[in-house]
Every structure is written in C-alpha cells, then in structure tokens.
UniProtKB/TrEMBL annotation:
The lineage of its organism: Bacteria, Pseudomonadati, Pseudomonadota, Betaproteobacteria, Burkholderiales. This is Uncharacterized protein. It comes from the Bacteria.
C-alpha cells in the first residue's frame, strides 16, 4: 500500500510502543495505560487513564483512541525526524492542531517524542514480541466494500478499531472533548460512546483482551483465527471479528523479528 504520498514507515518505528512517561507544563504522568501499534503504514492508539470512573458515561469518555496512517519526514536536516499521525477515525472529537512530534531514538527500543504544536515530552518503549508480523485489514461490508473498521497486528499483539455510526452533534465546537459533548447531550451518550477499540495478545488463534474503550471487553479470551485468502482478502473464521477483510498490509517475517529483538536486549 505504499505510494508517493505514503512511502511507508521506517522499520525503526514498527511494533507496539508503551508510553512510560508524559511531561507537560501541568505535570508528569506515568500511570495512564497507553499503547501505540505501528505497522508499515497504519497505526492504532489507545489511552486509558487509571482513575477514570469507567462505570459512568463521563468516565468512559475520558479514554482516548484513534487510528490512521503515519508519515515520517525530516523537513529540516538540523532537526529530528517528524512523526505525523494522520487520524482516519477518532474516539474523541477532531483535533484543532495536527498530531505530530519530533522523534529521537535513545536506543532501538526507546524513543523520545517532543511536541511541535504543544509543549510535551513522551517516552515510548517497544514491547518485546511486537516485531516481525505486520498486518492491517479493513472490514468488508455485505457488498464487499471496505469500511473504516480496522484490524491491526504487530507481532503477537492485535488491535481492533470499530468507529461509531453516529455523527458528531451539530453544535460541536473546536477544542471540545467527548466528555463535554456527553454532558451537553446526555441522551446521545450511548451513540457517542459506541466506538470500540480493543487491544491484547493474539496467539494460537486466541485473542486475550487487555484494555478497551468498552470496559466489559477487558479480560475476555476470544477466538480469532486469521488467515489470508489471496493478495487482496483475508478472513477471520471465529469470534466477534469473523468475516471478510481487505488486506491493506500483510508482512510476516518472524526470523527478522528474532534477530531485531536480540539486538535490542541490554
């Protein structure tokens, strides 16, 4: 799926990254659960705060998550690379500024991101087992056409992203959060929260969910037998993700995964 506009993300960025630190002028955060899954072009991101009351609509609305394509550029040779996350679907309302940061690799498995359109620093560390296999799929509808729903795989990790059907309320204003909208439109809370992002390990045809925008999914162990049908199509045979999917990306190189992770060990 590489094109002149999207030449592909360098291998240094592939895998699943856990955020271990966020620093902003307001303080430090080391407790929010954050995973960024990156294939050769596509990304998925899920962020679950530790203290949100997730049994309420307002608490669930504090979760963040999105998916889309990723671009790595270096507009100025004197500055670090710029990573831009071009969001296609988003749990939260649209941002007023691009999602982009300067990236500096301290080690192959540790990268520092600093803000371009905001004051922040984030530390990302790559999870073991997240290299080698890179898959990005789009769900096919009843007519065989691709939808905005995504299934992303990096190594032994899998992320599923299904966007909401409901449109944003007509009175949405720039800078609002999902929580703001739910407080103003409480009768629409169910429709606005109907957006599924789920992350976990997928091994031997079984997907164990670790975190999700819908708390009831967490801890579930679901069948997920994924195989490629041909160059353009794949299928999931069992479980809630069963059905046909369009192949956006499919790379399986477990030999190079083992070599890369050996070099990352301290």
């Amino acid at each position: 799926m590489n094109t002149p506009d999207h030449p592909g993300v360098p291998a240094a960025y592939h895998g699943v990254w856990a955020r271990t630190l966020l620093e902003t002028p307001e303080g430090r955060d080391t407790s929010t659960w954050v995973r960024w899954l990156q294939t050769g072009l596509w990304h998925g991101d899920l962020r679950v705060p530790p203290d949100a009351p997730r049994d309420t609509p307002e608490g669930r609305a504090q979760t963040q998550g999105f998916a889309g394509t990723t671009a790595i550029t270096r507009p100025d040779a004197a500055l670090p690379e710029v990573c831009t996350w071009q969001r296609v679907i988003d749990f939260q309302p649209p941002r007023s500024t691009p999602d982009a940061g300067h990236m500096v690799f301290e080690t192959p498995a540790r990268v520092i991101e600093t803000g371009i359109h905001g004051l922040y620093l984030e530390v990302w560390e790559r999870l073991p087992g997240s290299l080698g296999r890179r898959i990005a799929l789009a769900r096919l509808d009843a007519d065989g056409q691709p939808t905005a729903e995504r299934l992303l795989v990096a190594g032994v990790y899998c992320m599923h992203l299904r966007p909401r059907v409901a449109a944003w309320p007509a009175d949405l204003v720039p800078g609002e959060t999902l929580g703001d909208l739910i407080r103003r439109h409480p009768t629409q809370a169910g429709a606005l929260l109907d957006f599924e992002i789920a992350f976990g390990r997928k091994e031997h045809g079984v997907w164990t969910l670790e975190r999700a925008t819908q708390p009831a999914l967490e801890g579930q162990v679901l069948p997920c037998a994924l195989h490629r049908v041909d160059a353009a199509r794949a299928r999931v045979e069992r479980g809630p993700l069963a059905g046909g999917w369009q192949v956006l990306e499919w790379v399986d190189d477990t030999r190079n995964e083992a070599i890369a992770e050996m070099h990352e060990r301290p």
